């Protein structure tokens, strides 16, 4: 298939490009490099020996989209482009609605103009909000607690209405906690500022960039008192997009899928795994709970297995070891190549 990948230079997008090229799909990336760099695409080209057409532009711009759609004529779109920091979304709600919701609207309009009927969307487990029950299945009520979560829920609704009206297909992938890096250690997560997320923070402590990890609360109602999350290796996540493309080829309408492992780990377990993988001490300090955090999240991903034939195969050790290989091999991320 010819696949337009918005936000393809980002963390999850770049790993997905590798899997798409590995399955002989043709790819075109649209990215404004707001949170990434063209260097990433060079790494993908090197790694795969594949062709990656790239257009620098904003997913909200109708003219850019029209040009890309008419030139590339995609069979499907994978829509990663968006803003993803929960804290920033609370202080900049309009910016988040603009990129995440208006960006999705603009993309769908442009797809309609060329008759492209399939889209795979980066949604998030955060659309569920405070758990009514765990593990979350896809029928769990949607009650996001942040602006970021609401942008994802709104985009899901728009995609579902579009699919219904147009006869198109929208696959809504609700990611749990993506971590890890490509086995080559040439691609990985490269946060621009102080990492908000646990795994990149631990990695920066391990490599000596930060003195210790703050553990946000050890008095939750969990076995060791620290928060439980369903971490998913980014390569497994990337493969879920390939499975979703196959699914979209012979289904119509909108369908949501949880993308996790079903096996949650605590902050303490993540630190322990990283100590083993890196051989580094990783000092921790117990701090107060982070506002808005919930105790535990866990995916029921059985729908993704039964309907798309997808399941996660990477272990916790794979997540920690690949993150360490990436972080220690690229202590400044992609920066050193940007000139
Ligand atoms: P990322 O920031 O690494 O990648 C996003 C990419 O989109 C970047 O390359 C960025 O430059 C680009 N982009 C941003 N705004 C753009 C715009 N207006 N026009 C064109 N390009 C734009 O993030 P990621 O972790 O790879 O996440 C990809 C998607 O998955 C996002 O939509 C995010 O909300 C979603 N998601 C991420 C996580 C996570 O924890 N990483 C979890 C759930 C969902
Ligand atoms: N966490 C932590 N210290 C950090 C970052 C995160 O203790 O510096 C904890 C956080 O409270 C949660 C877990 O690690 O229990 C995962 O947090 P992350 O931000 O990675 O994901 P999310 O909260 O979005 O699920």
What can you see in these coordinates?
The protein has about 350 residues and is α/β, with parallel strands linked by helices. It is about 40% helix and about 15% strand. It is built from 11 helices and 13 strands. The strands form 4 sheets. Strands 3-2-1-4-5-6-11 form a 7-stranded parallel beta sheet, with helices on both faces. The chain has a two-stranded parallel ribbon with strand order 7-10. It has a two-stranded parallel sheet with strand order 8-13. Helix 1 links the parallel strand 1 (about 1-5) and strand 2 (about 25-30). Helix 3 runs parallel beside helix 5. The longest helix has 22 residues, at about 95-115. It is globular, with a radius of gyration of 19 Å. The relative contact order is 0.14. The structure holds nicotinamide-adenine-dinucleotide (NAD) and uridine-5'-diphosphate. Nicotinamide-adenine-dinucleotide binds near residues 31, 32, 82 and 84.
Topology:
Layout: E1 2-6, H1 11-22, E2 26-31, H2 38-48, E3 52-56, H3 62-72, E4 76-79, H4 86-91, H5 93-114, E5 118-124, H6 147-166, E6 169-175, E7 177-179, H7 198-206, E8 213-216, E9 228-229, E10 231-233, H8 234-249, E11 253-259, E12 265-266, H9 267-278, E13 284-287, H10 302-308, H11 316-329
Parallel strand pairs: 1-2, 1-4, 2-3, 4-5, 5-6, 6-11, 7-10, 8-13
Antiparallel strand pairs: 9-12
The structure holds nicotinamide-adenine-dinucleotide and uridine-5'-diphosphate.
Nicotinamide-adenine-dinucleotide binds at residues 6-7, 9-13, 31-36, 58-60, 80-82, 84, 99, 103, 122, 124, 175, 178.
């Amino acid at each position: 298939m010819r696949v337009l990948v918005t936000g393809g230079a980002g963390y999850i997008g770049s790993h997905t490009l590798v899997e798409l090229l590995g399955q002989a799909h043709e790819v075109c990336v649209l990215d404004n490099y707001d949170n990434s760099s063209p260097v990433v695409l060079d790494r993908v080209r090197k790694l795969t020996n594949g062709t990656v057409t790239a257009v620098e532009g904003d997913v909200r711009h109708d003219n850019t989209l029209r040009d890309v759609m008419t030139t590339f004529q995609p069979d499907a779109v994978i829509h990663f482009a968006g803003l993803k920091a929960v804290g920033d979304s609370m202080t900049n709600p309009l910016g988040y609605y603009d990129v995440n919701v208006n960006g999705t609207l603009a993309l769908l309009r442009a797809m309609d103009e060329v008759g492209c009927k399939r889209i795979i969307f980066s949604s998030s487990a955060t659309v569920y909000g405070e758990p009514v029950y765990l593990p979350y299945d896809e029928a769990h009520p949607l009650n996001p607690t942040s602006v970021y979560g609401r942008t994802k829920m709104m985009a899901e609704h728009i995609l579902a209405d579009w699919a219904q009206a147009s006869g198109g297909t929208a696959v809504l992938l609700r990611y749990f906690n993506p971590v890890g890096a490509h086995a080559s250690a040439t691609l990985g997560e490269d946060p621009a500022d102080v990492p908000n997320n646990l795994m990149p923070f631990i990695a920066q402590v391990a490599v000596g960039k930060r003195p210790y990890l703050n553990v946000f609360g050890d008095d939750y109602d969990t076995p060791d008192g620290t928060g439980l999350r369903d971490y998913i290796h980014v390569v497994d996540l990337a493969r879920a997009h390939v499975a979703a493309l196959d699914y979209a080829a012979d289904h119509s309408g909108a369908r949501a899928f949880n993308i996790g492992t079903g096996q949650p780990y605590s902050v303490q377990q993540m630190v322990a795994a990283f100590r083993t993988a890196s051989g580094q001490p990783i000092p921790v300090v117990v701090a107060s709970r982070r506002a808005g955090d919930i105790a535990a999240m866990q995916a029921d991903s059985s729908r993704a297995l039964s309907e798309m034939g997808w399941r996660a195969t990477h272990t916790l050790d794979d997540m920690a070891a690949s993150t360490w290989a990436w972080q220690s091999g690229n202590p400044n991320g992609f920066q050193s190549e940007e000139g």
